[in-house]
User: Fold this.
Amino acid sequence: MITLEEVKSNKTILAFINQSSKALSIYHYTDHGIGHVTLVADRARELAKKVGLSSKNQELSAIAGFCHDMGNFLERKNHEYWGALLFQGVFQDKMPPKDLAVVMQAIANHDDYYAKILNPVAAVLILADKSDVRRSRVIVKDKKIIEQDIHNRVNFAVIDNNFKADPLRKRIILQLKIDTKFVPVMEYFEIFTERMVQCRKAAKFLDYKFTLIINNFKLL
Ligand SMILES: [Fe+2]
Ligand SMILES: [Fe+2]
Assistant:
């Protein structure tokens, strides 16, 4: 069975991630490079363990987390499908077909809001990815660009991000501290409602409830 450590040292995967990061920086997007995918991989592994997935699925969650955004260098639109196919190209002779299919489904699922969630690894990846909002994800330092772009503005406003699963209460909780000088809580919702709906869907797939807390207000 292939491990995250092996995936992390695969030169093709690293090239795809770095090219994606470069491509998105042209659009002044937030970090989708090594920083983001490493955090998502770690968060996915931890969450998979907490909700009781098998050790194999914990590893597959971490691998899907690390590879989920690498299709962005081809095109932002449909990057989830590009990424799944690129993963197949690199690993089809190195992984059992079923494991390969599970990771491909997870990568394809992570940004298709109309698709049904297809397996628990996909549900874990959605939660790990959509919960990564934080000031350090903002790459551009230009104040004007930050102010103009709602994604940058909203990420910049998040000064603390605490993500955890509580297996006893069957809750997955995202607690954010937002600096309301930069965005009012409502603006956060304008941009994140869709993502939070996805998180709720993913938590439900795992038989959990999703809770979002912003500045001590419980909003979901
Ligand atoms: Fe993505
Ligand atoms: Fe992502």
Remarks:
- The chain has a mean pLDDT of 93.
- The pocket of fe (ii) ion (ligand 1) is lined by residues 68-69, 79, 110-111 (CB under 6 Å).
